[in-house]
C-alpha cells in the first residue's frame, strides 16, 4: 500500500489517520486468519484419525491368517545334532531322533607330488569331462555313472590358476575349484556343488588335462595324481527306530509339517516335541486390541470437552468424527454369522470395558483357542466364501479410508472451505488497497483545503491590521 508524508499545509498526521482507519477496515482479515487456522487444525486432526485407522486396519492382517490359529512349535533336546521347525499341518507328538551321518559333497584333490601340481607345471589346451552319478559306500564301494549327466569343459590356458578360474566361471559344470598352497606346491581341490550320494562325480581329461582321472569307487591315497578327500553321501536319520536317508541336510518330508535341519552326527537320540503353539494367535489378537484402543484414545482426545476448564478439542461436536466412533464400536461389537459356534468377540473372552476399550480375558481366550468346537480360526479368518471378522472389518475400514469414503469427503470439504477463504482474502486485499488510496486522496484534499483557508485567514488578518483606526 502507498505511503505519503504527513500534511505539510495543515499539519494533519495523514499516515496515522489512514493507519487507524485501515486497521478497522482490515478486521475481516483477522477473522479469516482465525477461520483458516481452525480449518488447518481440523485437517491435521483428521490426518491423525486416518493414521490410526490405517494402523488399526493393518493390525487385522494377522487375524486373516488361519494358520496362526493352528500353529505348532517344535522343541528339540540339547546337543541334538539338528534343529527343527513345524507348520500348522504338523500333529502334536514326540519323536526320538538320531542323526547317524550328514549329507556331504564330494571333494577330491590333485597330489602335491604329481607332475600336475607344482607351480612350474604348464597347462594348455584340453578337455575336462565331469560325469555325475550315484556313489555307494559299500562294501564294496560302487559308482553308477549317469550317462544323462555329463558335462565337458573346453579349456585353453597356461596355468592351474587359469583352470581354476575357468571351472568356477561355468555354473553348468556342477563343481567348483580352489587352490591350496601346501608350502611346496599348489594343489587343485574340486568340490561338488550339491550334497548327497547322487551328486558324486568322476573326472576324465584329455590333452594337457589327461592327468585329471578319477572315479569315486577307486581306492586312492595322497600319492595318487587325484585322490579322495570326502565322498558324496546321503544324510541318515533314525526317527523312532525308522532309518531314512536324504540327499540334503534339510529334511522336510520325513515327518509331515516338520523340517529337520541337520548339523552334526550324534551317538544318541534326542527328543523332538511338536506341540500346539497359541502364541501367534494371541499375538495377533493382542495387536488388534492394542490398535483398536489406540484408535479409540485418539478419537476421544480429538473430540473431547473439558468441563472443568471449559475448553473443547479440535473435533468437538464434529459429526464425522462422532460417526466414525459409533461405526467402530458397532462393527467391533456386532455379531458375525455363518462361521461356526463363535459369533462375537465376547464369546471368546474379548469384551468392552466401561471406558469403551477392549480387553481380553486370557483364561477364557486360551480355553476358546484350545476348543476346536469354537472355530476361532474360522471366526477371525473366514472359511470358503464366507468372510471372517478380520476381512469384514477391514472392508468397512476401506469404506472410511477410501477415496470416496467419509474421511476423504470431510477433508475435501475443509480444503474447499480454505480455498474459498483464500479467494475472499484476495478480493478483500484488492478492495483494501483501493480504500487506502481513497482515504489518502481525501485527506490530501482536506490538507490542501485547510492550507488554503489558513493562507486566506492570514491575509485577512494582515489587511484588517492595516486599516486606519476609527476615532
Structure characterization notes:
The chain folds into three domains: 1-70 and 278-446; 72-102 and 236-276, no CATH class; 107-233, no CATH class. It is 39% helix and 23% strand. The protein is built from nine helices and 19 strands. A hairpin with a 4-residue loop joins strand 16 and strand 17. The radius of gyration is 45 Å and the shape is elongated.
Quick rundown:
Helix content is 39%, strand content 23%. It is α+β, with helices and mostly antiparallel strands.
| Mean pLDDT across residues | 88
Task: Evaluate the radius of gyration.
Answer: 45 Å
**Record field, number of beta strands:** 19
Distance linking N and C termini = 61 Å
Biggest sheet, open or closed, and with what strands and sense? 5 strands, antiparallel
Number of helices: 9
Element string (H = helix, E = strand): HHEEEEEEHEEEEEEEEEHEEHEEHHHH
Tally of discrete structural domains: 3
The shape is: elongated
The spatial strand order of the largest sheet comes to 1-15-3-11-12
Can you tell me the residue ranges where pLDDT is under 50 for at least 5 consecutive residues?
1-5
Class by helix and strand content? alpha+beta
Percent of residues in helical segments? 25-40%
Strand content: 15-25%
Amino acid at each position: 500500500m502507498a505511503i505519503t508524508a504527513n500534511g505539510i499545509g495543515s499539519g494533519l498526521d495523514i499516515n496515522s489517520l489512514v493507519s487507524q482507519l485501515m486497521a478497522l477496515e482490515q478486521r475481516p482479515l483477522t477473522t479469516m486468519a482465525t477461520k483458516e487456522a481452525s480449518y488447518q487444525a481440523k485437517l491435521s486432526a483428521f490426518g491423525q484419525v486416518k493414521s490410526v485407522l490405517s494402523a488399526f486396519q493393518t493390525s487385522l492382517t494377522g487375524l486373516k491368517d488361519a494358520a496362526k490359529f493352528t500353529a505348532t512349535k517344535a522343541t528339540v533336546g540339547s546337543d541334538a545334532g539338528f534343529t527343527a521347525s513345524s507348520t500348522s499341518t504338523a500333529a502334536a507328538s514326540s519323536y526320538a531322533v538320531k542323526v547317524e551321518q550328514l549329507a556331504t559333497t564330494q571333494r577330491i584333490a590333485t597330489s602335491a607330488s604329481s607332475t600336475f601340481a607344482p607351480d612350474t607345471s604348464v597347462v594348455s589346451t584340453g578337455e575336462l569331462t565331469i560325469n555325475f552319478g550315484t556313489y555307494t559306500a559299500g562294501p564294496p564301494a560302487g559308482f553308477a555313472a549317469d550317462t544323462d549327466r555329463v558335462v565337458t569343459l573346453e579349456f585353453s590356458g597356461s596355468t592351474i590358476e587359469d583352470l581354476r578360474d575357468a571351472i568356477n566361471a561355468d555354473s553348468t559344470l556342477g563343481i567348483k575349484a580352489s587352490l591350496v598352497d601346501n608350502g611346496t606346491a599348489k594343489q587343485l581341490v574340486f568340490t561338488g556343488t550339491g550334497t548327497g550320494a547322487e551328486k558324486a562325480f568322476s573326472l576324465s581329461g584329455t590333452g594337457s588335462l589327461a592327468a585329471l582321472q578319477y572315479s569315486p569307487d577307486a581306492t586312492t591315497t595322497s600319492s595318487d595324481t587325484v585322490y579322495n578327500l570326502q565322498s558324496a553321501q546321503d544324510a541318515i536319520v533314525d526317527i523312532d527306530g525308522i532309518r531314512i536317508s536324504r540327499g540334503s541336510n534339510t529334511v522336510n518330508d520325513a515327518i509331515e509339517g516338520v523340517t529337520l535341519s541337520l548339523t552334526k552326527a550324534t551317538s544318541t537320540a534326542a527328543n523332538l516335541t511338536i506341540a500346539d503353539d497359541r502364541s501367534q494367535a494371541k499375538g495377533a489378537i493382542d495387536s488388534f486390541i492394542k490398535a483398536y484402543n489406540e484408535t479409540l484414545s485418539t478419537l476421544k482426545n480429538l473430540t473431547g470437552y473439558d468441563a472443568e476448564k471449559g475448553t473443547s478439542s479440535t473435533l468437538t461436536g464434529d459429526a464425522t468424527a462422532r460417526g466414525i466412533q459409533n461405526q467402530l464400536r458397532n462393527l467391533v461389537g456386532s455379531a458375525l454369522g455363518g462361521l461356526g459356534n463363535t459369533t462375537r468377540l465376547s464369546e471368546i473372552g474379548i469384551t468392552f470395558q466401561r471406558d469403551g476399550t477392549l480387553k481380553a480375558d486370557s483364561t477364557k481366550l486360551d480355553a476358546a483357542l484350545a476348543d476346536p468346537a469354537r472355530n476361532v480360526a474360522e471366526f477371525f479368518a473366514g472359511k470358503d466364501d464366507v468372510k471372517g471378522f478380520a476381512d469384514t472389518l477391514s472392508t468397512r475400514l476401506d469404506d472410511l479410508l477410501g477415496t470416496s469414503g467419509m474421511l476423504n469427503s470431510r477433508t475435501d470439504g475443509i480444503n474447499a472451505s480454505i480455498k474459498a477463504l483464500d479467494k475472499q482474502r484476495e478480493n478483500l486485499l484488492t478492495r483494501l488497497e483501493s480504500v487506502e488510496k481513497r482515504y489518502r486522496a481525501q485527506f490530501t484534499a482536506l490538507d490542501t483545503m485547510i492550507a488554503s483557508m489558513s493562507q486566506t485567514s492570514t491575509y485577512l488578518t494582515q489587511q484588517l491590521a492595516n486599516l486606519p483606526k476609527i476615532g
